Amino acid sequence: xxxxxxxxxxxxxxxxxxxxxxxxxxxxxxxxxxxxxxxxxxxxxxxxxxxxxxxxxxxxxxxxxxxxxxxxxxxxxxxxxxxxxxxxxxxxxxxxxxxxxxxxxxxxxxxxxxxxxxxxxxxxxxxxxxxxxxxxxxxxxxxxxxxxxxxxxxxxxxxxxxxxxxxxxxxxxxxxxxxxxxxxxxxxxxxxxxxxxxxxxxxxxxxxxxxxxxxxxxxxxxxxxxxxxxxxxxxxxxxxxxxxxxxxxx
Length: 250
What we know:
By secondary structure, the protein is α/β, with parallel strands linked by helices. Helix content is 27%, strand content 28%. The chain contains 6 helices and 13 strands. The longest helix has 17 residues. The mean pLDDT is 94.
């Protein structure tokens, strides 16, 4: 089985976020970048499939040199090789075109795994666009994936109030999330993996021509929460007054 993992490099969720240039650019100073958490579940599942069925796991990232430490981490965890398309991923469509063109030129992947969304901009659009541009089958919000006979697969996806079981065939693109692999199964690089990652190939390709369809006008932080007002448990009149006149929820 040949698997392609689409990798996003995102700020650590514990990072303090700031903006520069009159709130038009994200300030990367002091930010630690990590594997997108949804991609991390996909990477673990891809490793499990490779170990069970054999084959090759390739990681694809659209990004500049600053993403290479995160790419190397996937190689240390067990990916066989990596490809970086050397360009800043400015918007979802531009990024999807880069990925789709690479897939069209290397159209031998049985399974393409993406995260449901990246935890920086949360657009959740890239993998669906890639499916449209490459005309491949696509299932999103995937929380379970099993290979049956030959190229037949059973896919579990999260839906409102439950889950849906889908049977289909490879090749396939999936948008994975928590549940695709168990949290306790997530892998971290060991020393041997880190040493081996230095010898694994990381191919850098020039960007494909594509239009940039959107422009960021401004970033805004959420409004800070107001101070908490404590109300004595026996003072119901004061509580009702606050809920009615200040919170305006009753």
